[in-house]
């Protein structure tokens, strides 16, 4: 069912080589944002063009691909991206986290721990963790070069002064390998600890912003905090209404007009597997 | 028992099917032919080519048809297609002086060698709806092949002895009244092949502006006219016409013509610079775009001029049009529309994280004892 009109995984080999070079550089300098000549893809910017280009450059015919959005394999954009690679690369796909060799994700890290055999590709809207404190790229590049992250510390402090805690619940900034402050993409901060010392390769692609960055396997990833206000991974204080899990990130679902609601796992594979096993 | 929402794949297929039928319209109507779009909606086609960065009127017409007339969507289709095209090499710089013009006006001189040629312009039409076009009462004419009505209205430039039609600003240049158009032999970068680095030099800025959104550049250019980095632009010359595209063929050892493109070129004459020691001189802004796209070309020239403040020793007034990082990062409508529209994609996870946070913050205000709990 591969579309023969296109090269394997859509991009031409020169473009893939350019992206692979950027990926190698990104792995060599963990957390550093490597500029790359992002291409215009047949899906819009904001739909995961960066992740799609990283996946296209990393994918092998023997890979088994899983695509999730908000933790689910069946959300519309995950379906669309999976179909794109089925059509242009003809690779096998799966919804099982454990069976996948390459997982492209938007906004979540799977609950099932990843392994050394896996690559996790994140779709990134704004790669620059300092962007909303300093809109100028020329300035944020200087900030990273000098590791001059005081601005971020001040912001986190101001949050505590105003709200009593750090009021960032997703895209919570991390420090990678004791050097670069990095945006983990808009994953809930609940997922942040999974990035630390992770056996899998974690690659981040931002298409519109033309940046690739990476966290190599077994790298120290620390969520920024203060000694007296330590980082806390938080989630809704419920159990999943379907599988009963108490350790997974939950979506809140409104069930009726009267404000009725329930909480279910955002990771559909994790939830289905647990329900199947009757846990 | 709640069952997790499923059916994304079927929903997408159904949406695409509906879209396809909506695009076609009532079956009783004649199908819109891409030739008709190319020839009768030519200004829209030109915009799609200019901002799509691909000169192909047939494909632009197809894109407009497929996009149901949404020009930004059509531009996106063209950009995505462009990505897949192999790069054989670069053409020689086109010689706009040798342009076969269909329109050429100057606002700075009443007459100049080559004359003023209005061409097919809306400029002096009365904007009254012509109901004949709707009532099928269009005049039957057998001369609508795009040629000028009166051959005498066109300069005889079919076999141009170069230069066919001198640039009007050259007359100013001859007397040193205007800055020289920097003859730069350096090979410009290519923003579609290398990531843009800021600050960007003028060639890259012009590339970005040439494919930038017409509406965005129009608004910025207008803001300079209203005083946000005003630079007093006159349209020194605006010309629209066809130029030959030539390419060096290594096997032949010389350049041959491989086709021709229609271009709009706008050169503005702007506020002069100078001092007690340096004689006053006008400055330039430049716009060059595919097809008949003069609103865009003029806007581009004004914004180009505004972005040159530093090299011309002007003050940074803090105006949006002077801020190259602001202009270049936001002028691309495909980037802009993608990022804008992506907020309609699911964000349940982030929103859930925010909900949980706001609930906790509220609880800690209502019951201070809870602060720091959990």
TrEMBL record, chain A:
This is Alpha-D-ribose 1-methylphosphonate 5-phosphate C-P lyase. One of its GO terms (molecular function) is alpha-D-ribose 1-methylphosphonate 5-phosphate C-P-lyase activity. It is an enzyme of class 4 (lyase). It catalyses: alpha-D-ribose 1-methylphosphonate 5-phosphate + AH2 + S-adenosyl-L-methionine = alpha-D-ribose 1,2-cyclic phosphate 5-phosphate + methane + 5'-deoxyadenosine + L-methionine + A + H(+). Its EC number is 4.7.1.1. Catalyzes the breakage of the C-P bond in alpha-D-ribose 1-methylphosphonate 5-phosphate (PRPn) forming alpha-D-ribose. Keywords: 4Fe-4S, Iron, Iron-sulfur, Lyase, Metal-binding, S-adenosyl-L-methionine. The keyword S-adenosyl-L-methionine applies. One of its GO terms (biological process) is organic phosphonate catabolic process. Signal peptide: none annotated. The keyword Heme does not apply. Belongs to the PhnJ family. Pfam families: PhnJ (PF06007).
UniProtKB/TrEMBL annotation, chain B:
GO terms for biological process: organic phosphonate metabolic process. It comes from the Bacteria. This is Alpha-D-ribose 1-methylphosphonate 5-triphosphate synthase subunit PhnI. It comes from Paracoccus isoporae. The lineage of its organism: Bacteria, Pseudomonadati, Pseudomonadota, Alphaproteobacteria, Rhodobacterales.
């Amino acid at each position: 069912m591969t579309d023969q009109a296109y090269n394997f995984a859509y991009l031409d080999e020169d473009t893939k080589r350019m992206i692979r070079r950027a990926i190698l550089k990104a792995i060599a300098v963990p957390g550093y944002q490597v500029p790359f000549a992002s291409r215009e893809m047949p899906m819009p910017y904001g739909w995961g063009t960066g992740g799609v280009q990283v996946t296209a450059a990393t994918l092998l015919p023997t890979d088994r691909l899983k695509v999730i959005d908000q933790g689910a394999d069946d959300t519309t954009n995950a379906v669309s991206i999976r179909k794109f690679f089925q059509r242009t690369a003809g690779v096998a796909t799966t919804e099982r986290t454990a069976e996948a060799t390459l997982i492209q994700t938007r906004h979540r890290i799977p609950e099932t721990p990843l392994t050394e055999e896996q690559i996790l590709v994140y779709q990134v809207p704004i790669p620059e963790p300092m962007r909303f404190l300093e809109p100028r790229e020329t300035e944020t590049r200087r900030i990273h070069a000098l590791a001059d992250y005081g601005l971020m510390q001040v912001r986190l402090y101001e949050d505590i002064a105003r709200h009593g805690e750090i009021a960032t619940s997703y895209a919570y900034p991390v420090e990678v390998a004791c050097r670069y402050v990095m945006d983990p993409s808009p994953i809930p901060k609940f997922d942040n600890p999974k990035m630390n010392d992770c056996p899998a390769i974690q690659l981040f692609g931002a298409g519109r912003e033309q940046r690739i960055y990476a966290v190599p396997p077994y790298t120290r990833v620390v969520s920024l905090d203060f000694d007296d206000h330590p980082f806390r991974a938080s989630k809704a204080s419920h159990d999943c209404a379907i599988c009963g899990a108490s350790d997974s990130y939950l979506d809140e679902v409104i069930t009726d007009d009267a404000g009725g609601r329930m909480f279910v796992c955002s990771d559909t594979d994790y939830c289905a597997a647990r329900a199947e096993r009757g846990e | 028992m709640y069952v997790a929402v499923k059916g994304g794949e079927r929903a997408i297929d159904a949406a695409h099917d509906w879209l396809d039928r909506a695009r076609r319209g009532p079956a009783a109507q004649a199908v819109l032919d891409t030739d008709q779009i190319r020839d009768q909606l030519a200004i829209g086609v030109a915009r799609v080519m200019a901002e799509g960065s691909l000169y192909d009127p047939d494909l632009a017409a197809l894109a407009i048809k497929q996009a149901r007339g949404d020009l930004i969507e059509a531009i996106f289709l063209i950009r995505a297609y462009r990505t897949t095209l192999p790069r054989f090499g670069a053409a020689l710089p086109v010689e706009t002086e040798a342009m076969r013009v269909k329109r050429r006006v100057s606002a700075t001189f009443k007459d100049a060698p080559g004359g003023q040629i209005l061409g097919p312009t809306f400029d002096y039409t009365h904007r009254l709806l012509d109901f004949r076009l709707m009532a099928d009462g269009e005049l039957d004419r057998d001369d609508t092949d795009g040629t000028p009505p009166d051959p005498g209205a066109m300069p005889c430039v079919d076999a141009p002895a170069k230069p066919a039609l001198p640039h009007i600003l050259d007359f100013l240049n001859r007397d040193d009244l205007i800055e020289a158009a920097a003859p730069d032999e350096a090979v410009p970068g290519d923003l579609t092949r290398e990531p843009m680095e800021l600050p960007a030099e003028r060639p890259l800025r012009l590339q970005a502006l040439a494919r930038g959104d017409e509406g965005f550049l129009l608004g910025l250019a207008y803001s300079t006219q209203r005083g946000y980095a005003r630079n007093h632009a006159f349209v020194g010359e605006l010309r629209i016409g066809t130029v030959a595209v030539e390419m060096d063929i290594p096997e032949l050892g010389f350049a041959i013509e491989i086709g021709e493109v229609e271009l709009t070129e706008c050169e503005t004459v702007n506020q002069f610079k100078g001092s007690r020691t340096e004689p006053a001189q006008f400055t330039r802004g430049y716009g060059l775009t595919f097809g008949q796209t003069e609103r865009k070309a003029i806007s581009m020239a004004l914004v180009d001029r505004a972005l040159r403040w530093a090299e011309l020793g002007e003050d940074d007034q803090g105006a949006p049009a002077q801020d190259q990082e602001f202009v270049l990062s936001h002028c691309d409508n495909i980037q802009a529309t993608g990022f804008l529209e992506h907020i309609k994609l699911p964000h349940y996870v982030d929103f859930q994280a925010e909900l949980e946070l706001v609930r906790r913050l509220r609880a800690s205000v209502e019951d201070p004892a809870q602060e720091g709990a959990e």
